[in-house]
Write a structure and sequence with these properties.
This protein is an alpha/beta fold. The protein folds into 2 domains: 76 residues, Arc Repressor Mutant, subunit A, CATH 1.10.10.10; 162 residues, Glucose-6-phosphate isomerase like protein, domain 1 (Rossmann fold), CATH 3.40.50. It has 13 helices and 5 strands. A 5-stranded parallel beta sheet has the order 2-1-3-4-5, with helices on both faces. Strand 3, helix 10 and strand 4 form a beta-alpha-beta unit. Helix 6 packs across helix 12 and helix 9 runs parallel beside helix 10. The N and C termini lie far apart (54 Å).
Amino acid sequence: MDIHRRIRESRTLTPAEQQLGQSVLALGERLQGLTIKELARAAAVSVPTVHRFCRKLGLAGFKELKVELARSSATAEAAPVDINFPFTAGEDAERVAAHLQALYDATLRDTRELLDPAELDRAADLLARARRIDIYTQSHNLFPAQMLCERLISVGREVTCHERDERQIRRALASGEGDVAVMISYSGLNPHLRRLIPLLAERRVPVIFVGTPAAQRRNPGLAVYLNVSDREDLQDRITQFASHIAVQFVLDALFGCMFSRTYDEGLAFLEASLPYTRLPAAEG
């Protein structure tokens, strides 16, 4: 995760450490020229507080903090694109395509940093052992969700991905131990999906939740969280460019990790289906 986000979103910092974090963010590139004592003095904290602050961020010390801040600044400079409005009126095809590529690069890099490999492994293990996989989402997230559904079906897994709320509710009511739910919600605010969570919990169905860190905080206590880039505004945007590519990437990574665990079984199913799914040979 980007160091700036780690500082802003940490829930373990003491008031003095929060004060230090605010000073670090406010100093920006000027921090690179400071010693640890000078930073402590500028933030009105002690040197041991700086050491504890770095450790809570998962850093070895002040030097690594400087390295992470420099790397974050370089990344921001390498992708100067407005996530919500990546192109403006009158731009030609070359510029629009370049801006979208920069948006994709920045979003994938951000998502890759947020995506915890240990959580991805746990999610893949759940899918590999599942009797049935049910995918719950709505709106534009249905497109990547349905693609995941098709991919899972193509390797012989029993999967559902219903569009209608009523069918999703009934599927949740009919599910049980041995089933696994994949729930996709960028913001975690969708009231329908939040109604499903208690139903699945009552039936002891583990939920793999795909969404932003804020969505995770809004929906605590689930089995696994796969976080996506959270820089896209929920409303002030052209459309869902960043959230779409972030969700697609996470679902593709999830499928790949699951398939690697059941490789021989999945490959055998693919080969067995070829006589029935192969495209007709081209004539002439």
